Amino acid sequence: MADQQEEEDLRMALRMSMQNSPPEPKRSKPREAANLATTTPEESRRLQRELMATAAEKRMLATGKSVPASGSPLKSDSGGDIGTKEMEIKAKEVKLGNELSEKEAYLLFFMVFGNGVSKDILAQWSNQGIRFSPDPETSMILVQHEGGPCGVLAAIQAFVLKHLLFCPDDLVKAAQSTPQNSTPRRLSKNQYVASNNFAAFTENAKARALVKSMGEILFLCGNNKRAVIATLSSIGDGVEESEDSLTDVIIAQALEGLSIESASDLHKVLRVETYTTPASAYKRLEAIIPVFQSRMGALLFLISALLSRGLDCVQADRDDPSLPLVTAPFGHASQEIVNLLLCGQAVPNVFDGRMDLGGGMFLKGVSTNVEVGFLTLLESLNFCKVGQNLKCPKWPIWVVGSESHYTVLFALDTAVQDENELEARDSQIRKAFDAQDQSGGGGFISVEGFHQVLRETNIRLPSEKLDSLCGSGFIVWSEFWQVILDLDKSLGGLKDSTGQMGQKIFDLYHFNGIAKSDLNGSQFSSGGETPMQRPRLTKLRVSVPPRWTPEEFMADVAVLPSGSAGAQPSGKDTEVAKPEPSQHAPLVDCIRTRWPRAVCNWVGDPPSIV
């Protein structure tokens, strides 16, 4: 009897939820807080209808049912049947708005900040919005005001660049129709060469790219099944339903006096909504984007990504779940946060796959190809090894990590990632060696593993070289690499007697979102003496020599005349001359982890990765 009554209530709730009259906006505060004495009968009936509809929708999602098991089909107001398929679509797109439980809030706060977090770190993460620069020349850069959330901003920035540069609306369908195992750079080259007129992007285009980027990242974290959007319960649906002129007022009132200093604060102020279709998530993000532009934006997005992944899954991704994701003492985003936003998993390492340590223990790295990649100064210092999944992403865009900051590097032409014959051979040998390296990134393998590498790569070493490398019982990458450089191509090495293969000349651009004085641009303050404060944009000309030692390259190399911007030298347009003297900055060391022996030049201040 109880089951029959429950199904009847469910049927009634669904019928009410289908009526034409708009439901009353969902309240973010408990009903007890309102003045119940002034509630009219109509308001009471609307509230009851809303609660019943919400309960019905939740049950539908939980049980996987689209209609009650018994009873006649539901009718619309016009008298037509509401088909099962239509109801399933409605159920799949529904948003579930909830406040975090006390337990979830505690786990979330401890996971992000740990115990004993300083007020300075909490302030950094509570005062960073996701906003574009107002400066025309850097208007596509997300501005960072303080240290800390740069890892979140850089990851979002990388996806924004992807959508602005390579995936405008007229190319989305073409990109989606590309087979999964192929990359866009294998298609027509001209189709994927973006414009360098960064000031031409409209506010609408940037806003659309930001919404798409945020939604894509959240669904990536949710295994393409869901996106959880965290917002402030004190705002509720007020922003979505208000006029633009009132939005700032609503947000300002909600943020007045608001601070996050404990798990109980999170429990009080957060509201989370789950979406199971990209269209519904994009619509919601577009409506509440002012909330993410507010000072709480970066923290809210990080929480959204963690909840989209699931707190249990995040902890399972990590090698040491006891450590906070925001690192002390400066409050920087950990590698786990950056990896979560780039590949959807909060793994702590940057190598490919996972590394078996024996005894059932292993370290977790990046297991899939990614849309945008990652390079780090730490690799040039031999502290880690970035795998091919992050180093060679689908699009030529990389988050760049230093000891204390994250920035973004990108190219306008996807051809910069195309490999010539020698580069492909280089990659093949490195990949085979890395697959046998069980040293935790130490760069050495066993003799048995070394022979496996030689078989896989068809390298035929002279006996004296083989004996020399294997004499110590293990093979060090640097020693093996030197032998390969000196070994002729006919024996499987990389030595090219002609010295004419492999030359590349191309442009890269570097974004640093921290607003500082900039000498590279042309705009200055009204006094004309002090450079304006804005994010930094640097254009680099990169030359990758065709020979295998810098000395040979500097001695005799064909370079392009100025103004031939990245084209390959040919015919009378080529002149033989020494390149411009190489300039150096820490970013160059990062670039050389992707393009060994690269020579970089720029105009103005050196690019900064701190």
UniProtKB/TrEMBL annotation:
EC numbers for this chain: 3.4.19.12
Catalytically driven reaction(s): Thiol-dependent hydrolysis of ester, thioester, amide, peptide and isopeptide bonds formed by the C-terminal Gly of ubiquitin (a 76-residue protein attached to proteins as an intracellular targeting signal)
Deubiquitinating enzyme MINDY-3/4 conserved domain location: 109-486
Highest taxon above the source species: Eukaryota
PROSITE patterns: UIM
One GO biological process term: proteolysis
Disordered, as annotated region: 1-46, 60-82, 562-583
MF terms in GO: cysteine-type deubiquitinase activity; K48-linked deubiquitinase activity
Major enzyme class: hydrolase
Keyword field: Ubl conjugation pathway
Matches recorded under Pfam families: MINDY-3_4_CD (PF13898)
Family of this protein: Belongs to the MINDY deubiquitinase family. FAM188 subfamily.
Function: Hydrolase that can remove 'Lys-48'-linked conjugated ubiquitin from proteins.
Name of the protein this chain belongs to: ubiquitinyl hydrolase 1
